[in-house]
Write a structure and sequence with these properties.
Blueprint: H1 2-13, E1 21-34, E2 47-57, E3 62-76, H2 83-88, E4 91-106, E5 119-137, E6 143-166, E7 169-180, E8 208-220
Antiparallel strand pairs: 1-2, 1-8, 2-3, 3-4, 4-5, 5-6, 6-7, 7-8
């Protein structure tokens, strides 16, 4: 986390860096989990999420991007369409901190130094590291804390649309899925091997979570020269 924060602060501080343009701003929206507990709807945000975002626009078609996102992951069996989950009536909730870094590609050139309306769809992917508290469901169905936390690596897959709304501000709406390499986010698989017998659900499928929301960024830096990219 220390190196990630240093990277973000460095991007903000280098306003006069050689011939590039930068963005910093906020992320806000909602999250929902697709796992072994709760509803299985793909786009059904049920918890608020907020974070910060930084970009280095390497060319008019691609940017390096990093972000920090805070949210609470929650799943409620009673909100599922599956009769078996409704009858089971489990519920989980865990705090989440997501660190993400990767590359954003635009469908068309997004050169902010030319006049007129600027807007384009974009794709973003890279890697995420998600910190969450560890829980499990006891033999009588009680949601119980293990008193530990874990980091889950994942792959973000995001589709969005962004547009310039003022001289130096960009507004974007995006929908992103995070595939994690963990099955522990929803408490269906305990972190401790001593509680392995309490695992349930499809242990061959890892957990996913979704983010749906907006970003608002402020752009700065000297007029770039993209001729070398």
């Amino acid at each position: 986390m220390k190196y990630f924060i240093l990277f973000l602060l460095g991007a903000i501080a280098t306003r006069n860096a050689h011939a590039q343009i930068y963005e910093v701003g906020i992320i806000a929206g909602g999250t929902n989990v697709i796992g072994d507990v709760g509803a299985t709807d793909y786009i059904a945000p049920n918890q608020f999420a907020i974070g910060i975002l930084g970009k280095w626009n390497r060319s008019a078609r691609h940017s390096f991007r990093a972000s920090i996102l805070f949210s609470d992951l929650k799943g409620v069996d009673a909100e599922s369409d599956d009769p078996r989950r409704i009858a089971r009536d489990y519920e989980f909730s865990t705090d989440m901190l997501e660190l993400s870094a990767g590359m954003e590609f635009t469908f068309v050139e997004f050169d902010l130094h030319t006049p007129g309306f600027k807007g384009t769809p974009y794709l973003y992917s890279g890697i995420t590291i998600t910190n969450h508290d560890n829980y499990y469901f006891s033999s009588n169905g009680t949601y119980t804390s293990e008193g530990t936390s874990s980091w889950a690596f994942g792959i973000p897959m995001t589709l969005g649309y962004k547009a310039r709304i003022a001289n130096q501000f960009i507004l974007a709406a995006e929908l992103g899925a995070r595939y994690t390499f963990s099955d522990e986010l929803d408490g269906s698989v305990p972190d401790s091997e001593d509680r392995e017998t309490l695992s349930f659900g499809n242990t061959n499928n890892n957990d996913w979570y979704m983010f749906s929301g907006i970003t608002l960024t402020y752009t700065f830096g000297r007029r770039p020269c993209y001729c070398n990219f």
